[in-house]
Amino acid sequence: MRDRMRKAVRTGLVAGVAFAVTAGLAGSANAGTIATIKVSGGTGKFLDYGDRVECHDTKADGYGVRTYAYSKVNGEEWMQVASCWGGKDDLVQSGNAGFVEGADVRVKLCYIKRGVGDVRCTGYKHAKA
């Protein structure tokens, strides 16, 4: 049913959805790392699997950055994840993103270390899709 709704909503729409959040963590060994997060894509009202969630780590310091972007669609929570290491964009989609244009999207940024996982995370930042 969701697929039918999505197709119906997409008909005739040509609109990208994007937002950017910049965040850094002070007081840590990797305090100089700044990440810019952008969620974009879509030729319609919904972002689907394969649309981009980008994160760019501006400092090659041995740590990486992982971002989690969440939004609710029809009462269900959807998520996309992006990870990057040392200035490279390494894009990973997790399931189908369900970001609706104009919806509130929560973004959490974590520093990551290979073999360890999330080291330290920011609180959620809010943006409109």
TrEMBL record:
Source organism of this protein record: Streptomyces sp. NBC_00180
Cleaved signal peptide residues: 1-31
Keywords associated with the record: Signal
Protein name per UniProt: Secreted protein
Lineage top rank: taxon: Bacteria
